[in-house]
Amino acid sequence: MKKVSFAAFGGPDVLHLIDAEKPHAGPGRIRVRVRAAGVNPVDWRIREGQVLGAHPVELPSGVGLDAAGVVDEVGEGVEGVAVGDHVFGEGSDTYAEFAVLSAWALMPEGLTFEEAAGYPSVVETALRVLREVGVRPGQTLLVNGASGGVGSAALQIARDRGVAVIGTAGAANQEYLRGLGALATTYGDGWVERVRLLGRVDAALDLAGSGVLGELVELTGDPRKVVTIADLDAPEFGVRFSGVAGSVPDALAEAAALISRGRLHIPVERSYSLAEAAAAHIDSRAGQYAGAPGGDRLTKRRVTVRRVRRARRQARGQGMDMLDYDDEARRYDASRGGEPRARAAADALERLLPQGPCTVLDLACGTGIVTERLRRPERTVLGVDRSPGMLGLAARRVPGGIVRGDGARLPFASDAVDAVVIIWLLHLLPDPVPVLTEAARVLRPGGVLITTVDKNDAYFAEESDIAEVTADLRRQYAPQVPDRSTRLLRWAAEQGLGPAGRTRFPGTGQGRSPRGWREVIEAGRISWCTHAPRDQVADVCRRLSALPDQDTPRPDPLYRLIALKS
């Protein structure tokens, strides 16, 4: 049979149509000849390696969870379905001519295979979030991202239950939402006021991940009345993140009943062949549609884009200046010491890492320039980052080992790795404790956590005329930084982690000249100068200008690493 497969995590280009053996239905399972398979955002997230914690993958792997087709094999213990029945449901590797389903229902009369394949995951998610948000008949539900697959289902199910719905979507989808019975308004400036004009909001669902949780909490007046499936920053707002599936058989039964009564319909807008699976993923990821690739066709529905709100937004609110790492990715390495600094960092880590067979996680791996240097024949090395721009580069350096995820919500099980490496991250965080706590969670007993500390002191680790000129200003006005080693060691002691070693490595080629220091100070890029009185900063700049060899770099920074053992 033909099947879509991938042998490494990465972009759509890793998908290939291959010849494979037919799977067989084990106990409690059925096999179907696939007539259509659903394309959902989770499919390309699995392909990218984003959700390994919830969906463990053994490479090479097939693709797809949802399908509709004709039963051609029934496993032991299965009742109520026979060979030849038309069913829709959820299973694995559904982008194929044959697939095994673990949950299914008979297709309602009049439903096409292409339509049916789009319902399983979408309806399960819609029913789950409606249950979790607790909206009741007579109340009003706000759905952010209402024109997507889950949004369309949630809107119609809520309306069937006597709940009024306000939906937000793009301008092109306003009539679509109104046709489903919702009060509709657009995204963009002033959307909160537009929603208020439409009425009171009792509960809200965020299905788009567009960074609006604060506004949804404001509109509902209670974070417990907001549920998101797409924004990893939910804990910051006290909002529930819904990611664990409920009962798929129950969801399919309710979907079939709603469809049969004419209360639920999600249209198919486009089809693809199996050979065009990569194109279906590209369109789904771009947010134009959500879909359903089939045994010989891939069909898709509308979806919204998951736009994860980056941590830099919160950091700016606390006076920290964080980069847009997607924009910065391609020039990041060259502007920060490049290969020489990465080599020095990897060599230093090697002095602290466990030797022999082990699994190492590089948290906030960035472009993977350090990560790839940690690989050994006997060692499994994984990298996790939340910036798609960085991940694209990292995936080329560490094929099959890069995962998208948030450092405060790592997509790994507890006790999963032998070492966690955190390089040049903690100093950027408003509060490093959530990330450190997650790192400790995924460590196996006896594992080691290695991180850079005291990054702001790196340029002054060795004596120099610049260190002398700036000493008083740094001593008086340096802010309390998140990666201070004394703070980290206190946290470690509370967690039962003890010191296991320390070392340093140079930022090769990063030493600054007197003129270079004066320029970054005058540009407002040095924290201890932005907090100091202007006349004192001006005095330091004058003294820097008077130093000899204005364009000669002083000693390279020396970065500190400490290791903590569980």
Describe what this molecule looks like in 3D:
The protein is an alpha/beta fold. Residues 288-297 and 299-329 have low confidence and may be disordered.
Descriptive terms for the model:
19 helices, single chain, 566 residues, 23 strands, alpha/beta
Kindly name the structural category. Answer: alpha/beta
What's the Cα radius of gyration? 27 Å
Range of helix content: 25-40%
Low-confidence stretches: 288-297, 299-329
Rounded to the nearest angstrom, the distance between the terminal CA atoms is 49 Å
| Overall body shape | globular
If you average the pLDDT, what whole number results? Answer: 86
Strand fraction equals 15-25%
How many DSSP H or I helices? 19
Report on the biggest sheet.
Answer: 7 strands, mixed
The total strand number stands at 23
Helix and strand arrangement:
Elements: E1 2-6, E2 16-19, E3 30-38, H1 41-48, E4 61-62, E5 66-74, E6 86-92, E7 98-106, H2 113-117, H3 120-133, E8 140-144, H4 149-160, E9 164-169, H5 174-179, E10 183-186, H6 191-198, E11 203-206, H7 213-220, E12 226-228, E13 240-241, H8 248-260, E14 270-272, H9 277-286, E15 290-293, E16 298-301, H10 311-317, H11 325-332, H12 338-350, E17 358-363, E18 379-385, H13 388-397, E19 402-404, E20 417-422, H14 433-442, E21 443-453, H15 465-477, H16 485-494, E22 498-506, H17 514-522, H18 527-530, H19 534-545, E23 558-565
Parallel strand pairs: 3-16, 8-9, 8-11, 9-10, 11-12, 12-13, 17-18, 17-20, 18-19, 20-21
Antiparallel strand pairs: 1-2, 1-4, 3-5, 3-7, 5-6, 6-7, 14-16, 15-16, 21-23, 22-23
Helix pairs in contact: 3-4, 3-8, 11-13, 15-19, 17-19
